[in-house]
Amino acid sequence: MTNTTNALFHELGAEGLTDGRMFDALVAGTYTDMLGRVVEFKKKELAEYVSNTQQASEATRTESGDIVGLPIDSRNHDKQDAAGWIVAVEIVGEVVRVIPKWTELGRDLISRGLQ
Fold first, then answer.
1. Mean pLDDT of the 86-112 span
2. Distance separating alpha carbons of residues 28 and 7, to the nearest angstrom
């Protein structure tokens, strides 16, 4: 098992399923990803992650000016249904936080503890 520093675990529950309510997404540290690979996120790189995510999110802007957002996968990263959409991202202290827009499916799966 890989040692982690500055680890943050955030379990979403029904109380967190409000559109526009930020949640913590990334803290600098060394982690093992879902495929067993060791990955490191350095504090000095967080601003770059935020900038890249903001640019990608901005690219989803519709002709009417609305941001569709970046998908929050609902079913084990199978790239099908979205539980929600990341519509904004920012750094708060040393934590990257995202602002979601939840789908009905996402609210249901998370509130029932299914995903």
1. 88
2. 8
